[in-house]
Amino acid sequence: DRQLGEIGEKQASIESQLRQTEASVKNDEVEAASIEERITSLRERLNNTTTSKEYSATLTEVNTLKADKGLVEERTLELMGRVEELRTALAELVAQAEEREKIKGVAKADLKKRQDEAAERISELEGERAIAAEDVPVEALAAFDELADQRDAKLGEAQHIAGSDSNQNDQYRASLGHNWRDCVRQAQLLQ
Question: Which H/E stretch holds residue 53?
Answer without folding.
Answer: helix 52-133
